[in-house]
Specification:
Largest sheet: 5 strands, antiparallel
CATH architecture of the largest domain: Alpha-Beta Complex
Radius of gyration: 21 Å
Strand content: 5-15%
Mean pLDDT: 95
Number of strands: 9
CATH superfamily of the largest domain: Aminoglycoside phosphotransferase (APH), C-terminal lobe
Number of helices: 14
CATH class of the largest domain: Alpha Beta
Distance between the termini: 53 Å
Strand order of the largest sheet: 1-2-3-5-4
Helix content: 40-55%
Order of helices and strands: HEEEHHEEHHHHHEEEEHHHHHH
Low-confidence stretches: none
Bound molecules: 2-acetamido-2-deoxy-1-O-phosphono-alpha-D-glucopyranose, magnesium ion
Number of domains: 2
């Protein structure tokens, strides 16, 4: 995509200032993100994103969800007397012509623009102190959305449904599109051994014991903005905000934050569960969710911690077997390397299960 095309797209939106540059930003695996710089010091810079509409097929619904959520959060922050609200919730710009929060090009690509939060930073790691703050922040995020008076759509149906993710893997195994099944048989077997147990969330839901609440559903560390002093500002990447089990937000954060290695670490010795990060996060999360969290949700936090590396291993492996059509990859075995790293993390979390349960039982 060249500068002229990008600048043309930017010019469709109602923004202030003269655009001087549009350049790639961040490392998301799904959407393409750009930083839009403006010349004037009193005009904000912006973040331009191409929405991956192969994955998010209903862009109008997706943007309606996001607008509903950000408007509600803005209101809550105001009610709570917060200052600096424009740094604590994303602000989307509308198009000049249609007043919609997204622009569709003649080639049917979809774009949106939000204000860049000046001075804010992202991180790929957290320490126990910031993990505690993040626990509070995600708990608050769920608490603020607990009384949302509108229903949100599922932007990706069955997104964190473990039974569905396993069925996708089984389909990929059956189809064996690119002839990779034999090579990873041992991984498939290891996944299948724990499959029934890992579908506990769906089982509890069907029994009417476990509720769905509005969750972020992509709470990895990269999707948080921090002040340079380390305090948490807000969550970004709201495409997957939808009704789900609270496990989603707990589990996906720990999957990224409490991993001593990288999501795609080739050296599995680097990959282990960091209990200290877990403890700090859970302590913060329990503090800010006191008003609504049920015992069944609280008791299953260790399950949530296990579920997400397990689910991510299933998703990466399914994509590997499917010929790498979902996640962006940097080299041919990238999805396999990611699978192994996530499965190793899963095993390490599993080894900490009793310790996690004991910690939670002791919390106020
Ligand atoms: C994707 O878009 P990004 O990179 O924040 C994915 C998440 C995965 C994550 C793995 C819509 O998130 O579910 O956990 O990659 N998002 C979607 O890093 O599938
Ligand atoms: Mg992201």
């Amino acid at each position: 995509m060249d500068q002229n095309q990008l600048q043309f797209i930017v010019s469709q939106f109602d923004i202030k200032g003269t655009v001087t540059e549009v350049k790639p930003l961040g490392n998301g695996l799904i959407n393409d993100t750009f930083k839009v710089t403006t010349a004037e010091s009193d005009c904000p810079d912006y973040v331009l994103q191409r929405i991956n509409n192969a994955i998010f097929t209903d862009v109008a619904m997706l943007m309606r969800n996001i607008t509903t959520v950000t408007t509600h959060i803005k209101l809550k922050l105001m009610e709570n007397g917060e200052t600096d609200i424009e740094r604590k919730v994303l602000n989307f710009r509308l198009t000049k012509e249609t007043g919609k929060p997204y622009f569709k090009t003649t080639e049917e690509t979809y774009w949106r623009i939000m204000d860049f939060i000046p001075g804010a930073i992202t991180k790929s790691e957290v320490n126990p102190e910031s993990s505690h703050d993040v626990g509070i922040a995600f708990g608050n995020f769920q608490a603020m959305l607990a009384d949302l008076p509108f229903e949100l759509g599922e932007t990706i149906p069955n997104f964190h449904n473990m039974e569905f993710r396993l069925s996708q893997l089984r389909d990929a195994v059956k189809a064996d599109r690119v002839g990779r099944v034999a090579e990873v048989k041992y991984l498939i077997d290891a996944i299948e051994r724990d499959a029934e147990e890992m579908c506990k969330g769906e089982q509890l839901y069907r029994q009417g014991i476990l509720p769905k609440r509005i969750c972020h559903c992509d709470t990895k560390v990269d999707n948080l903005m921090f002040e340079p002093d380390g305090s948490v500002l807000c969550v970004i990447d709201l495409d997957t905000v939808m009704p789900n089990f609270v496990f989603s937000d707990i589990g996906d954060f720990l999957r990224s934050a409490a991993n001593t290695g990288r999501e795609d670490d080739e050296n599995l010795d680097n990959v282990n569960f960091n209990f200290e990060i877990f403890a700090a996060f859970v302590d913060g999360y329990l503090e800010s969710t006191r008003s609504f969290l049920l015992p069944v949700e609280r008791e299953n936090i260790p399950y949530a911690a296990k579920l997400f590396p397990y689910m991510q291993a299933v998703r990466f492996l399914a994509d590997y077997l499917d010929g790498d059509r979902y996640y962006k990859i940097q080299y041919p075995t990238h999805n396999l390397v990611r699978t192994k790293a996530q499965f190793k993390l899963y095993e390490s979390v599993k080894a900490n299960e009793a310790k996690m349960a004991e910690f939670i039982a002791k919390q106020q």
